[in-house]
Specification:
By secondary structure, this protein is of the alpha/beta class. The chain contains 2 helices and 8 strands. It has helices spanning 32-47, 112-122, and strands at residues 4-12, 19-27, 55-58, 82-87, 89-96, 101-107, 132-137, 140-144. The strands form 2 sheets. The chain has a 4-stranded mixed beta sheet with strand order 2-1-4-3, with helices on one face. The protein has a 4-stranded mixed beta sheet with strand order 6-5-8-7, with helices on one face. Strand 1 and strand 2 form a beta hairpin. The longest helix has 16 residues, at 32-47.
């Protein structure tokens, strides 16, 4: 017999600013993609014509998008856990070292290496492996080409940096 898990799902609509909390019951053996399908179905019934196509399940406690083919039990998601139906492609503002500011869309479900590679491709920068990113504010990121220089390796961040 499988255990039933009651999960709190927070649905955030960035375009309208509306947030909804849903309490939904799932089996621990369900895959994340099955959970996502049921959550979207429930939300569409309440929200009408919004499709939520670009949304995934996000786990804020672990700051991650769980992999779609893995189960709730794999991640040890228990009753009472809060998950978020979150848009995976969002804009970020980049502050380049020359003082320029650029905005690009980023897939937040990707790993950091893939994000940096994608940003460098979009900005036509070569040598993505020589770049790093520093989060200065929510959705604002500094693209730093000197990140991997020998002079910066091993330096600790000052208390004002995040």
């Amino acid at each position: 017999m499988t255990d039933s898990i009651v999960i709190k799902v927070l649905v955030k609509r960035l375009d309208t600013g509306v947030e909804k909390n849903l309490g939904m019951q799932f089996e621990g053996i369900m895959r994340i993609d099955e959970v996502l399908h049921l959550v979207k179905k429930q939300v569409r019934e309440q929200d009408g014509n919004h499709t939520y196509e670009d949304h995934l399940i996000y786990w804020p406690e672990k700051t991650m998008f769980p992999e779609m083919h893995k189960t709730l039990n794999f991640y040890d998601i228990k009753s009472g856990t809060q998950l978020v139906l979150k848009k995976k492609h969002r804009p970020i503002r980049l502050h380049l070292t020359d003082g320029a500011t650029r905005s690009v869309f980023v897939d937040f479900s990707s790993n950091v290496k893939d994000i940096i590679t994608g940003v460098c491709e979009e900005l036509n920068f070569s040598g993505a492996d020589q770049f790093g990113m520093i989060v200065s504010h929510k959705h604002e990121i500094e693209l730093n080409p000197d990140y991997m220089n020998e002079s910066n390796k091993g330096k600790k961040k000052s208390s004002g940096e995040e």
